[in-house]
Amino acid sequence: MLNIILFGPPGAGKGTQSDLLMQRYNLNYISTGEALRKEISSKSELGLKAKSIIESGGLVDDEIIVQIIGQALTNTEVCDGFLFDGFPRTYVQAFILDGLFTRLQTSLSRIFILDVPDELCVQRLLQRAKEQDRSDDKASVIKRRLEEYHEKTLPLLEFYKDTDIYTMIDGTGTAEEVFNRIDAHISEELSRRPANIIMFGYPGSGRASQAARLAKEFNLTVISTGKLLHEEVSKKGPFSSQIEPYLNDGLLVPDEIVVRLIEQKLKEMDGTTRGYVFKGYPRTLVQAYILDGILKKQGSAISCVINLKVPVFELIKRLDARAKTKEMMPYDSKASTIVARLEEHEQRTEPVLAYYQHHNLVVEIDGTGNTDEVYQRLHAPALRAIRNLK
Length: 390
Prior knowledge:
Mean pLDDT: 85
Helix content: 55-70%
Shape: elongated
CATH class of the largest domain: Alpha Beta
Low-confidence stretches: none
Strand content: 5-15%
Largest sheet: 5 strands, parallel
Structural class: alpha/beta
CATH architecture of the largest domain: 3-Layer(aba) Sandwich
CATH topology of the largest domain: Rossmann fold
Strand order of the largest sheet: 2-3-1-4-5
Number of strands: 10
CATH superfamily of the largest domain: P-loop containing nucleotide triphosphate hydrolases
Number of domains: 2
Oligomer: single chain
């Protein structure tokens, strides 16, 4: 997820930048004031407590604030992250936010501070008052608001100042110029996140073509167990004699062999790639657990599983057509081996799909049509996963 706090003095343009960030990255806006008003209007137990405190002239305490923010985080529509306004405002609330993120198994991605001189803030707010006829934007009120920002908000930033997520942004210039400065940092942040995608589907669904396109666009490496196995056979590696009979019959090669080849490949690619597209693996539930373990050793995990759905008769046509090309696989040679391969996939690999569905990682994609049409369908969900925004 992409979780952002946007700080800045009154008149810095936080509202404009918040709108742009939410549109670009599908973020949910979390405002303490807005969340409070929502709870009060719903007449919930928390809302009634908050209303009683406010009406008596008091400040809503952190015990209530943390519950309200917690509900706002868990009760929102599907999004790719959160943008915070007005929270945290104190050291205590900063720790509270860390705790809330820990519960959600995520973390704060960036804190942006819009750096705008007080003189320019005053100028902007007075201009806004004139254009929108806002009586609250008087010079005396603006001065008090700026003083409060410097006295209360800036000290809070010390909580984050020594972290690598603290980012000062030049807030002068047009809204587009400021957004481009913010966006450059977000793009850099997202580009560093590892991504691992499983390209799932029956033989003939087009997994190889789509995996190759994803890898090329997003600097990923395709891990094809079929390719690894054929390379091992062609170079007469230590496992070649064991592998060959399985390949000729279109059957699954034992896990002990496949795991060793995958680990060897990941070791070779370590530090040279952003992540992987797994094609042809995992094919069994056992292999799914194995892959989780392999990636965990690298401090990584599966980002998403793209399941290409193609009707059975279309699969048979494609595999039969492939048998007449140089891309022919050993089991493409006759109808019986094609059917056996499809049946084995249904019996042994469908539980794998169910496993990843349970973890909300599966994206179902219509795999019919040409390569470009299918790629257009899977591009957006793949991009979200690659950005680790799920």
